[in-house]
């Protein structure tokens, strides 16, 4: 097995002689065998052990066994104890999830502090099969079918080539000592249920199941690489990053050939797959439809689809005093100044600048989100118009419409921000004092 191990390290994982590895060792047969195999290589390595304090004296026994072994072999050893159940309650997550988060956060710290190139875990062929079966039961896409990859960033799995029987034979032949976790025999964990109940039945159908699955997993890993490359190209070419989210053309969003990528993109940012499948990919959805995900809202507009961070659509209400020179709002900066010279025509036509008769204003001014029922008198018109109608007439997208702000003096709208000034507060060449507000950033 040692020869197969070295071949896998070099050919599948690409480990080189100058790389250093941190081994995650629990004390079970898999990780103790992994440590034994690394001992018989020329690679620099150390051992890290997490004591989650879930099995009382047994947990402490695991830690002591690994400590004593590493000390006797002069192997660098790191350990840390966690109050796992207490942390799980505080975070309102399962004990298993808490343990996973705690160990990988600590492992990352060790990698950085001690400049290890890789973290190695003892996942083997059966773990890979169980992972894919679990994903299938829960529901999955291409990413879930790929199983466990031999290498993902700085995380490597040098035993994926080996079946459980290979590991047991190696441990027995080399007198490797390990401690058995009693929870591994319980079927109340989903993974253990598959291991003890489902896999034996599948082996009856195909005694070569593990080898067959390894071949399939290798093919799926190649498919996954192609999929991720195509998905990255789709995002780069079709999705535009905006100040508060994303946008893409409606045609691209509903194009059937893009569906798998649209699905993946929306799932990645927190939309439920069932919502995506039943509603968001229906080309008959009317413009104006809004769908809410965990962190984003999706707006179907006339020509585009906008995905905006939910927190960005918050209530805005800011007062502006007469002596202010600048104010910041939603990542933008506005400059305020009083001028006496009548502006140039090009400045008057610039929607990012507003000029108003200061004598007609009552301070403080108020800038807020527009509301249904808001009316103002657009410059050049004699009558008032609903803000909603103005935005529709000027084909303002739903995305921009949701962010539209108005500037008020008292109860009157002075400026539909970055759109149009009110005729009631307009200026002419006889205006003595002109208030200028300009978007500068």
Structure description:
The structure is a single chain. The protein is α+β, with helices and mostly antiparallel strands. It has three domains: 2-216, HUPs (Rossmann fold); 239-311; 317-439, 3-Layer(bba) Sandwich (Phenylalanyl-tRNA Synthetase, Chain B, domain 3). Helix content is 41%, strand content 22%. It has 16 helices and 22 strands. The chain has helices spanning 2-13, 29-39, 57-73, 84-91, 95-114, 125-138, 142-145, 164-173, 190-205, 209-238, 250-254, 259-268, 273-280, 345-348, 387-393, 398-403, and strands at 20-24, 44-51, 77-81, 118-120, 151-152, 155-156, 240-242, 245-249, 290-292, 296-300, 304-309, 317-320, 326-329, 332-339, 353-357, 365-369, 375-376, 385-386, 405-409, 412-416, 420-421, 434-439. Strands 3-2-1-4-6-5 form a six-stranded mixed beta sheet, with helices on both faces. The chain has a five-stranded antiparallel beta sheet with strand order 7-8-11-10-9. The termini are far apart.
């Amino acid at each position: 097995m040692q020869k197969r191990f070295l071949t896998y390290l070099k050919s599948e994982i690409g480990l080189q002689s100058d790389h250093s590895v941190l081994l995650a060792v629990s004390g079970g047969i898999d990780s103790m065998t992994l440590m034994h195999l690394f001992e018989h290589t020329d690679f620099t390595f150390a051992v890290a052990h997490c004591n989650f304090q879930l099995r009382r004296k047994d947990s402490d026994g695991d830690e002591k066994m690994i400590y004593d072994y590493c000390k006797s072999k002069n192997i660098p050893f790191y350990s840390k104890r966690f109050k796992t159940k207490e942390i799980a309650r505080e975070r309102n997550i399962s004990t298993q999830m808490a343990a996973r988060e705690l160990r990988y956060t600590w492992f990352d710290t060790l990698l950085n502090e001690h400049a290890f190139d890789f973290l190695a875990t003892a996942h083997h062929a059966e773990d890979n099969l169980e992972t894919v079966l679990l994903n299938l039961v829960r529901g999955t896409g291409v990413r879930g079918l790929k199983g466990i990859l031999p290498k993902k960033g700085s995380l490597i799995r040098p035993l994926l080539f080996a079946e459980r029987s290979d590991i047991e034979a190696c441990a027995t032949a080399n007198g490797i000592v390990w401690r058995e976790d009693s929870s591994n025999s319980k079927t109340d964990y989903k993974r253990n249920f598959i291991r003890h109940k489902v896999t034996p039945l599948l082996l009856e159908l195909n005694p070569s199941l593990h080898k067959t699955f390894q071949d399939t997993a290798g093919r799926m890993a190649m498919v996954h690489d192609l999929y991720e490359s195509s998905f990255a190209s789709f995002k780069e070419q079709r999705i535009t990053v905006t100040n508060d989210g994303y946008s893409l053309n409606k045609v691209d969003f509903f194009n059937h050939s893009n569906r798998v990528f649209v699905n993946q993109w929306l799932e990645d940012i927190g939309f439920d797959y069932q919502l995506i499948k039943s509603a968001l990919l229906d080309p008959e959805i009317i413009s104006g439809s809004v769908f809410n995900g965990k962190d984003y809202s999706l707006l179907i507009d006339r020509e585009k689809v906008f995905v905006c961070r939910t927190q960005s659509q918050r209530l805005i209400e800011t007062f502006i005093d007469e002596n202010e020179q600048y104010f910041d709002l939603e990542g933008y900066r506005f400059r305020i100044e009083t001028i006496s010279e009548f502006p140039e025509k090009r400045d008057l036509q610039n929607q990012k600048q507003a000029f108003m008769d200061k004598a007609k204003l009552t301070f403080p001014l108020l800038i807020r989100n527009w509301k249904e029922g808001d009316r103002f008198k657009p410059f050049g018109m004699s009558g008032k118009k609903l803000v909603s109608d103005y935005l529709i007439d000027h084909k303002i997208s739903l995305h921009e419409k949701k962010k539209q702000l108005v500037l008020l003096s008292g109860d009157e709208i002075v400026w539909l921000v970055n759109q149009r000034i009110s005729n009631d507060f307009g200026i002419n060449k006889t205006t003595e004092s002109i208030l200028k507000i300009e978007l500068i950033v």
